[in-house]
Amino acid sequence: MKNLLRLRLRKYSQQEIEQLVNKALEWILSALSVIKPVKIILIGSALGEQFDDWSDLDFVIVFKTKEDARAGRKALYGHRRPMPDRSIECLCVDEATFNEKSKIGGIYFIAAEQGKILYEK
């Protein structure tokens, strides 16, 4: 039923999606001003033509160490969201785990193969 309701929702243009992604990226970089990520990757529906009013923005954020990933997660959750009506999902991971798991499938594989790198140190 939920998928049928989505057919009626407004689809966003590529330009509108890019504006939302840029706003979210600015928020992420602001929240992580002290703990610099190695890489920020956009994944999910924002990469395609299925982005609508119910869609969220999904990011995989890669950090150098597990400690940095933990600190990054904490910083993001403590930082005021820029778009209260839009969910921003951030998966924080250390570089070693990302590199290892991106070869075997799952969300890290999808990020490595299909994601769009928005920031790289």
Topology of this structure?
Blueprint: H1 2-6, H2 14-31, E1 39-43, E2 57-63, H3 66-78, E3 88-94, H4 95-101, H5 106-114, E4 116-120
Parallel strand pairs: 2-3
Antiparallel strand pairs: 1-2, 1-4
Précis, in short:
This protein has 121 residues and is of the alpha+beta class. The protein is built from five helices and four strands; from the N terminus they run ααββαβααβ. Strands 3-2-1-4 form a four-stranded mixed β-sheet, sandwiched between helices.
What does this structure look like?
The chain has one domain (35-120): Beta Polymerase, domain 2. It has five helices and four strands; from the N terminus they run H-H-E-E-H-E-H-H-E. The chain has helices at residues 2-6, 14-31, 66-78, 95-101, 106-114, and strands at 39-43, 57-63, 88-94, 116-120. The mean pLDDT is 92.
Task: Give the % helix.
Answer: 40-55%
Count of separate DSSP helical elements:
5
Rg is 15 Å
- What string gives the helices and strands in order? HHEEHEHHE
CATH topology: Beta Polymerase, domain 2
Major sheet characteristics: 4 strands, mixed
Distance between the termini: 43 Å
- Say how many strands there are: 4
State the main characteristics:
43% helix, 5 helices, alpha+beta
